[in-house]
Design goal:
Layout (H helix, E strand, L loop, with lengths): L9 E2 L10 E5 L4 H9 L5 E5 L5 H8 L3 E4 L2 H9 L9 H18 L6 E3 L8 H7 L3 E5 L12 H8 L4 E2 L2 E4 L9 E4 L3 E2 L4 H14 L4 H11 L3 H33 L4 E4 L2 E4 L2 E2 L5 E2 H4 L7
Parallel strand pairs: 2-3, 2-5, 3-4, 5-6, 9-14
Antiparallel strand pairs: 1-11, 6-8, 7-10, 8-9, 11-12, 12-13
Length: 294
């Protein structure tokens, strides 16, 4: 057998090569892009989208950024005859290749970092292989525990009797939001919503419904509207978490971590300032927004 060679952590971006640029993917309001842009308005970047008319693209143009779009619905319908966007395969990769060719042409090379900021397409295998680990995304929950979009991860956390929720910035790989975690936000106490959640919590306790599926089915059996009530409150929590979590940790991750050369990876192990992070990444609860962990 050959010798097993130890891997050396590799910087995600090395600032000795010059200033970092980035490409930001948007599909909707562009609020995450707003916060990333505001973190350093002078940093060279482009914005790309699969929804040409979305608000995020309007913001990019207003900021003077180059805005690149390729309508995914039209592309897959006209080019491949698909009514839905495929997750994998040659057809899926062809779209990513097309839009990223435009991105790379506008930057005169590959972007130093890709930020998915409300980009509503799962990226394909080709895109991950080409750019990993230079792809970031934000998840509205502890990504290790609660999957799903929008309000769903928060509702799962509530039913699991969590005392608080937090958001996660992670490196995008070929899994479903399961890439290495870079940073998690400060904990948002669910006690703020104790009054609104009282009935749903009592019902979950009475029925033993600790998953969304069980809770929905139990509510349907008893003919109450508690599932809808849980959705409304979870949406409120998620919106607050976006402001107090996502909008703080995403710009920090881009401009203070990656751009300054503070982050390295060795496989799935994340290092910040040369210190190995736990699986849950940098914890704002513990380290705040320090400029060095040492």
């Amino acid at each position: 057998m050959g010798e097993v060679q130890e891997m050396t952590p590799k910087l995600v971006f090395d600032p000795s090569s010059g200033a970092m640029n980035y490409a930001c993917g948007v599909s909707g309001s562009g609020t995450n892009y707003d916060k990333i842009y505001e973190g350093d308005p002078q940093k060279k970047h482009v914005v790309f989208s699969n929804v040409p008319g979305c608000a995020g693209m309007v913001k990019a143009r207003n900021y003077g950024a180059q805005a690149i779009s390729l309508d995914s619905a039209i592309y897959f319908k006209e080019m491949w005859g698909f009514d839905k966007v495929p997750r994998h395969g040659v057809e899926r990769n062809s779209y990513d290749m097309a839009i990223m060719t435009l991105v790379e042409q506008s930057l005169d090379g590959q972007p130093d970092l890709l930020c998915l900021a409300g980009y509503d397409l799962w990226i394909g295998d080709w895109m991950v292989k080409r750019y990993y680990p230079r792809i970031l995304n934000v998840h509205p929950a502890d990504a290790r525990k609660y999957t799903g979009l929008g309000w769903i991860p928060t509702a799962k956390a509530i039913l699991a009797e969590e005392k608080s929720v937090k958001s996660t910035v992670f490196f995008v790989d070929q899994s479903d939001d399961g890439g290495p975690i870079l940073i998690q936000s400060a904990s948002l106490p669910l006690s703020r919503w104790d009054d609104e959640l009282r009935e749903a919590r009592r019902f979950a306790e009475k029925t033993g419904a600790r998953t969304l599926k069980d809770f929905r089915e139990a509510a349907q059996r008893e003919g109450n509207n508690l599932y809808e009530s849980l959705k409304v409150v979870s949406s409120s929590v998620q919106e607050t978490l976006k402001v107090e979590g996502d909008w703080k940790i995403y710009p920090f991750a881009v401009h203070e971590f990656i751009a300054k050369g503070r982050v390295a990876l060795d496989g799935r192990i994340v290092y910040i300032d040369g210190v190995q992070m736990p699986a849950e990444g940098w914890q704002v609860d513990q380290y705040g927004f320090a400029d060095n962990i040492r």
